[in-house]
Amino acid sequence: MKALLICPAERPAVNFLGETTPLAKLTVFGKPLVSYWLEHLVQAGAKEVRILATDRPEQIRAFVGDGARWGLEVEVSPELRELTASEARAKYHKQGDSDWLSQPNDAVIMDHFPGLPEYPLFSSYAGWFAALQAWMPRIASTNQLGAKEIKPGVWVGLRTRISPEAELRAPCWIGANAIIEANSVIGPIAFVEDRVMVEAGVEISNSTVAPETFIGELVELKDSLANGHILVNWRNGSCTTIPDTFLMCSLAEGHHGAKTSNWLGRMIALAVMALTSPLALVPILRAKIRNQASLRSFVAVRPQFSNTPNTSEILVYYELANCTGWLRFWPQMWNIVKGDFAWVGNRPLSPLEVAELTNDFERLWLAAPIGLISLAHAEGAVDRFSDQTRACASFYAVRANWKMDISILARAFVVATKRSLATLFF
């Protein structure tokens, strides 16, 4: 059975919704709108779907591919203008071809959720928000992979970190890989999408937060649509741009050049390296006596920010071989002295690890300097390349400042001390 999906083109009433992505590809409760429609058509019995796209068809094509993930054959056809359902049928239904779904599923404009035509998504910002509220009760039946209802009306996605001191009020949705810090209140009627970072003391109610958006400390969002640096009041349609990145910004656009270690930091590193050299000489001499290598070399990609990082821009750094704990990083203080590393930053990544950074959010790892100590260390993350570590690296890249650096140093020292004591006594 065949079907046509028509992507909505420009909608002046909600122009900011489509600023960075086609309306059909807007993320809603963790999935693009077109994904809901493809799932709906599969359930209706479709085997072949043609998607008619006017606005940025290449983005739609890149997302849906050949449709195999839905068990469909999908083809994306560019159109000069948005067709009506009747025009699409007249153009693509061949005479005598009865192998089509029955109306209205044979040709659908994706301007509403499946089964909710009475809630148009793009007639106004208020209509968009009302449609989200109407759709939320159906989350449980829409194959939200990994999302859990942790209490009635409160849904949380995979790998999301929520402070125990945060309060979640139903109904609310928090997407995957989000971070909600202490004393924040999310809800009621709050939709926080994937990879959003919410600092301490934030209140969000009657609002949506688009993917990869940062919400700064003590910010209050009410009756709002937040998308990067854009804030819309959905009740009256007013829109404003937030110039201060410490209040609101896009995590994908938050980089303004990676900092490097300063001269004071370099001099401190040289002094610490000299003072701790007797400790470092012990494993070095032990390795010499055993006729073993005293150093292990590694390759790291230099800090940068690009959708396609240049993995040929590399540097070499070393660790002490046959050595555990902080002492194995002793040679990397020389990298601080040279200006290749900073005291605090994101840990170095090899070219192979960089290739595993799958989206702009994760590639923010490279937007910060390479650091001897990282936020992940301060958080006690054990796996150096886990989802938690990636989230910490992206967060640091956007929010790094000297106060955060001092906090990370202090917390990392406490974590390292606890681990050392546990090793000694247990």
In short:
With 426 residues, the chain is of the alpha/beta class. It contains 12 helices and 27 strands.
| Structural class by helix and strand composition | alpha/beta
Please tell me how large the radius of gyration is: 26 Å
Q: What is the overall pLDDT average?
A: 88
**Strand numbers in spatial order across the main sheet:** 7-8-11-14-17-20-21-22
Largest sheet: 8 strands, mixed
Strands, total number: 27
Q: Strand content of the residues, in percent?
A: 15-25%
Estimate the global geometry from the Cα principal axes: elongated
Low-pLDDT parts are 254-260
Number of helices: 12
Question: What is the percent of helical residues?
Answer: 25-40%
Distance between the termini: 65 Å
Overall number of structural domains: 3
Architecture overview:
The chain is α/β, with parallel strands linked by helices and 426 residues long. It has 3 domains: 2-124, Spore Coat Polysaccharide Biosynthesis Protein SpsA, Chain A, CATH 3.90.550; 145-250, UDP N-Acetylglucosamine Acyltransferase, domain 1; 263-425, no CATH class. 29% of the residues lie in helices and 22% in strands. The strands form 7 sheets. Strands 7-8-11-14-17-20-21-22 form an 8-stranded mixed β-sheet, with helices on one face. Strands 9-12-15-18-23 form a 5-stranded mixed β-sheet. A hairpin with a 2-residue loop joins strand 2 (27-28) and strand 3. It is elongated, with a radius of gyration of 26 Å. It starts with a strand and ends with a helix.
